Protein 1
Amino acid sequence: MTVAKYKSPLLLIPGLSVMDRYIITELIPPFLFGMGMFSAVGVTIGSLFDLMRRAVDEGLPATLVLKVLVLSLPQFIAYAFPTSILLATLLTYSRLSSDSELTALRSCGVSIYRLVLPGILLSLLVTGLTFLFNEQIVPAANYQATVTMERALNEEKPPFKERNIFYREYDSVDQEGNKETILKRLFYAQQFDGERMRGLTILDWSQQGLNQIVTAESAVWNFTQSTWDFFNGTIYLIAPDASYRNILRFTHQQLQLPRTPLDLANKGRDYDEMNIAESRERLKLERASGDEDDVRKILIRIHQRIALPFACLVFGLVGSALGNSPQRTNKATGFGVSVLVIFIYYMLMAVGDALGLSNYLPPIVAAWLPNLLCLSVGGFLLVKTAQ
């Protein structure tokens, strides 16, 4: 057997045997091929068609379309890491099996578990790379792609939410021995320029028996006194029988309201434009509002960001187990099996997401459901093959 000329950081690890080095070098070419193929397919289906349509409709220059396309590529590269590991392990071990190399190694007393170790080591390395790539590059690239497109359409995206800012504050109360969540305050602003909110309406039930409605032309956060300065507005005090108890008009009024609406407005990025640290900051703001639906959604997104890199390890185990099975698998069959496994994995991801958002599963279980199920299947196949 001749060792290929491809190099890997794993080959520098002391203690690797000749067999380990050989299998790893055999894994790298199909892995690189899978990265190129799955990234190209993903960006073509996910971005290219939509960009071409918008380029024709809006008359966007080709250079801008190319820039947005390049900025969209990291997202699909992140998804290509685990799928490429699956393809590499499945094709490599199937090729070694069809050439009777695995049979020769097993006749020398090498167990199945020892044979799949190089594939697992490579999967662990790619897991770390995927996590770093998904944290450091993907969110920034997604945000820049959005900003570039918005600027091209003369709709510059500010680093904050500029219209229709909603903030719902909840409170937990005891109702006949049962703890219930009720709406405490509803905050709405029509516009936000990064400093001043305009067109405000606040519905306030913070004090029992004293509900009020506050409308104002504008408002700013007073950093020195930690209050809101409202300008040119009206306060409607509501009596218990739902009639107006009093109406107070003002040109300047300070109100002790939470600053959370301002913080939420200043966090203008979408979920796929934030890394884990930024998502945790958003989570603190959402928890301050008491909205369990938003809290649950962002918790699922945070756990999914951690779970996705570990799909490389799961796919490495599944691909290695399938490749070591007694059935002979050619390249066409290997591609077909890879596509089927990938489809099942992402279908499970969608199911877990839906169950988590519907509160049927805890966020951590919803995010890790595909990994847990596929890991169980991969472990079962490996044990069955080893028997």
Protein 2
Amino acid sequence: MIPEFHRIRRLPPYVFEEVNRLKAQLRACGKDIIDFGMGNPDMPTPAHIVEKLIETARDPKSGRYSASKGIPGLRRAMAGYYGRRFGVKLDPDTEVVATLGSKEGFANLAQALTAPGDVIICPNPAYPIHAYGFIMAGGVIRHVPALSPEEYLAGVSRAVRHSAPPPSVLILSYPSNPTAQWVDLDFYRDAIALARRHDLLVLSDIAYSEIYFDDNPPPSVLQVEGAREIAVEVNSLSKTYAMAGWRVGMVVGNARMCAALARVKSYLDYGAFTPIQVAAAAALNGPQECVDQIRSIYKSRRDVLVSAMARAGWPIPTPPASMFAWAPLPEAHRQGGSMLFAKRLIEEAGVAVAPGVGFGEYGEGFVRIGLVENEHRIRQAARNVKRFLEGSSVASDVGEAVDAA
């Protein structure tokens, strides 16, 4: 008998698969499902980006191998973006690596930086690749509760004291997927100071840095003096320009870590299709009104979601950033947990959400709602949720009456 493969054995069953399977079954039976479960942008990629892709793809040479760390023009565009947006000057040759989305960048960084048994400090709840990229690389995850940025940072020193061997990497991710929280520059200053005290490298994921809803855009950890000596940042064009399927991201910052990532990638891929990279450069260098429009759509959906669900009897905190709402379970459903609630919601209300436990044990008691349906569908979902909650309340009252009798 062939034994289970080592790396696969270290990965738990995919928590979201159960909800995805239910969703597929219900749709196959003709049921309309309003799907907030996946962070998959539904808006079209801006036209000028698509046109640049088409123009470049017509070049007979465009089908050749590209460059695994990104073509020079794209790396210059990424460095230019950091200069304009954050006031951070990067060397595009040594401090910028273009990646096949932020997820690939993060996973291959883990491969580049991790020896078997290395301890990694990771927020919990968190986007799954933050932990499992390192687990697949042979690392050991030290989960730190992160239901608020302050809770996370306070827990890092405790984790360092109680870890053997000492941790080597600290993961940051703000605006957060799934909690939608973001931080100011003082948080990053404290995080870098903490990392220096404990000899930690810092990996910061800011894939949602352009999806924010007030006048203060989220900062970059690289704005902190000296951060580039120990930190890299993972970023993405996926949400900013509605380019999720294009798979264009970046890792920027510390030159030594960027070089390690580039070396790993040189063995694994030849980079994205060159016309995609040229179009990505056009996105970064071109007009940015499309980013404002995308941000405005998410803000409008957020406002409709919060107000409509409140009327339905499900109060949801207003997310300050990202394309998600992090919603506590309705009181009547808290005892059953997030997985049961998500399954019942899709079966009885036709509404799909992501169970919080899928983002780590400290995500239990919450679900993540993606702002990936239009306002009409959001209001329709709220009506379905209202009927579902009212039915649950009636069932609960009947059950209590039977128990009392």
Protein 3
Amino acid sequence: MLFPYIGKKLNQSDKFKHLICIASGKGGVGKSTTAVNLALALAANKQVGLLDADIYGPSIPLMMGVEPGTRPEIQQQKYIVPIQAHGIECNSMGFLVDQNTAMVWRAPMIISAFNQILNDTAWNERDYLVVDMPPGTGDIQLSLAQSVKVSGAVIVTTPQDVALLDARKGIEMFRKVGVPILGIVENMSTHICSSCGHEEAIFGSGGGDRLAAEYGVEVIGRLPLDLDIREKTDAGNPVVASTPDEPPAQAYFQLAKNVERKIEEFGESAQSGPTITVSED
């Protein structure tokens, strides 16, 4: 059943047990693909919601196979009923505007839109809310950290140095606002040739391990550079939903297990409220 909203503003922790940010320092590293497949993997035995926090470039509607033009139901002229896709409750700015509409908004409007889509979504009770963050370390990241309890952040990167440089900024940002780092996901880690079976680290190797060692965190996932992942995600039928027994999907199921393990390890040390520290650096 939906939560009763009349007469009071609910705290987000009343709707879901854990909020997980899927973040990256830069675009193009497969953050949204990771968020979608991780949410689906968690949903194998948990109740999961998926929030697309990328106001400028929402991709969850396409990746989750939601028919273009689908609009959510609005209750009490305010609250947005999430769209159901692959057994997951989803919400995204992409459900509220035309897919060809450019969001030419300044920061205050972006923050307002994000806060509304977060706080005015009529989620059912969930074990996890997976939030696909926009790339970078900007206003939405800060707004989320100041608004709700965040169980932890997953940092997605690729092995090459330019991606690792930006991933460091993401880790530093979450640490400054008191959000635990659940771990690093090294996406496009290796590619296995479909013809000969040769495995090759196209984008280099060891980058995720070096970054994890530098910050004292764990590499909790290594995801392959695989054509099947790209094709099925673009078709709105991600590998975890369509081919769960194949190796690419199994990598996401292992990631989900590691995320749940890390959340259990952090336990009550997870963020209990907005805490921002300021330093001279």
Protein 4
Amino acid sequence: MISEFHQIKRLPPYVFEEVNRIKAAARNEGKDIIDFGMGNPDLPTPDFIVEKLAETAWDPKAHRYSSSKGLPGLRKAIAGYYDRRFQVGLNPETEIVATLGSKEGFANLAHAMTAPGDVVLVPNPTYPIHAFGFILAGAALRHIPISSGDAFFQHIDQAVRYSVPKPLAIVVNFPSNPTAQVADLDFYKELVRFARKHEIYVLSDIAYSEIYFDDTPPPSILQVEGAKDIAVEFGSLSKTYSMPGWRMGFAVGNPNLISALTRIKSYLDYGAFTPIQVAATTALNGPDSVIADIRAVYKKRRDVLVEAMSRSGWDIPAPKATMFAWAPVPEPFVKLGSMEFSKLLLTHAEVAVSPGIGFGEFGEGFVRVALVENEQRIRQAARNVRKFISNADQILADYESKGGAAK
């Protein structure tokens, strides 16, 4: 009897599990953990969206099977959003499919388009599903150090020249989770030119496109002429409208890839609960002011985090976008690596972060800090961090005396 299955063996141990274990144990002891670990939005979903959900849920017909492709009204609302936000026209019938969050859509498209042994270029560090979706589909990965500059194109050019077989697809994610890097339209123009030349698909994840802090909104790859020939883009309502638990997202772009995703989904699900799809339609057709309000909260939290942590002795670069800060491990703890630093920070400062190594080997030396605690809690975390850093010598001595075990 097989006890460990092939697909499961392809997945590495869950890097965050050790931090989660310490966090759970601390909470069981009654400790008040300030949790910047998981990017789980804490802001309430706007009232008008919740009210539409409740209203629709009272309709008995809404409790029947829904549509895996997405209700027609929802797909039209997604098209309307792209027209307003990016000045991109989309055909709701052939270029849009609703997904159960962007994560589900990405993983299912990886299965739909990938044959065992296909090569896919994936940024590193990156959100885990960008790599593991293709790993589970049987692909071979080539990791590309994340960048939105010339170095990125040097790496993918080299990867294309030395990969056998030729890469099937390139994954990009801007604004980036976890690094918060952004890309401009010129970057996408060069990427589209490269991908069309080499006949490679591009899978673009823009889940954080509405959480930005500069005057210029992040662009969509579909704004580039010819992008639909090779690109599909994934979006999500989770952060834009603070709807993470609703699991509502979409994929748009290349009709061939959208058709493949739509077909595989038709075998796997009946789509999100109809009231959720109706409420999502209401959100996308609603006022942009609610998006601006959510963005303003994250900007304020970002500013408080950067300023308070700087005064505590931890210099964290201010992210230009996303709900994350990509923070270098403070100097006294660099030699330990991001995992051991995260465990010590949790144990001694009661502050949880995500170790950068969990997002890929090139994430080592950093931790991801999610802006999911209010300003008061951020300032409290900074006070805890100040004590932690000021006691670094003693903490490290105790750590070494225990043979390098945080707890």
